Amino acid sequence: MVDVCLHSEGDRLLSQRLLRSLKNRFASTKEVGVFEMVDNGLRAVENPSLKFLSDRTGEDTNASATVGVALEGSRPLLVEIQVLCSPATSLPSKRTFTGVDPSRFNLIVAVLLKQARLRLARQDIFVNVVGGFRLEEPATDIAVAVAIASSYIERPVPRDTVFVGELGLGGELRFVAQLERRLFEASKLGFKKCIVPQGAKGVKVDGMELILCSSLKDVLEKVFNYKSLPQQRKSGATVHLDAFPEEDGVCGEVQVGQDALDDDLANDK
Q1: What is the pTM of this model?
Q2: Mind listing the pLDDT tens digit for each residue in 191-223?
Q3: Residue 242's closest CA among 260, 225, 262?
C-alpha cells in the first residue's frame, strides 16, 4: 500500500522545482513545496514569492508585466506574468503560452476582444509565467488580461500594484477565496495597491490600498486611464482610437492595411 506519492515539476532550464502531493494519507494533497536545485541537492525556498519576483528591480518596468497572487493549497504565491503582443506576420495569428491554462487563456482573449474591443485578432500573443510556475486557478485572470492590454497599448503597469480577481464571460470581476491572505502576502513584499473585485468592499489589510472594480472596463480605466470603448471610424487606411487620450502618450492613429480595416469594420456591423 502506498501512503504518499509526490510529483516534482519545473522547467528543466531553471533551478526552481515544485513538489506536489498526488496522494497523501496523512495530510492534504493541495499543498505545494517550492525548492531550489543547488550543488548538494534540493533546498527549500523560504519565501517563494520573493524568489519568483527577484528580477523585478529598479524603479521602471517594461509594458506587459503584471503580478498576480495565486493560491497553492494554503500558501499564497506572487507570480509575475509577462506578455508580448506583436502584429501577426501570417494568419492565423499565433498564441503561445507557458504556465497558463490554454482554455483559460482563450477565454481571457475573447473577453478582451468583446468587452474591451482590443484588436487582438491580428496579433501574435506570447505569454510566460516567470519561474516556470503554472497558473491553475482563475484568481490570476485579471493579471493576465491587464498584461495583454499593457503590451497591446504599450503602457506600463504601476510597479506597486498587484491584481487579484476572476474574469467572467461578461467582463465582470468575481470574488476569489482567501482574499485577505493573498493581500497580506502582497503587502509583505512591498505592494501598496491591489485591483480587486467589488465584492471585496469590506476587506482591509494594513498598508494596502484596495481599488474596487466591477468589470474589466473599470480595471482598464483605473490602470491605463481608459475612458470608454474604442470608437473607430474609417478614414482612408487609418483607424482612430478615441479611448486613449493622445496627450497621455498613446498614439491616436494606427496605420493598417485596407483589407484588414474593411474586415474589422464589417465585424462591427
Answers
A1: 0.73
A2: 899 999 998 888 888 889 999 999 999 999 999
A3: 225
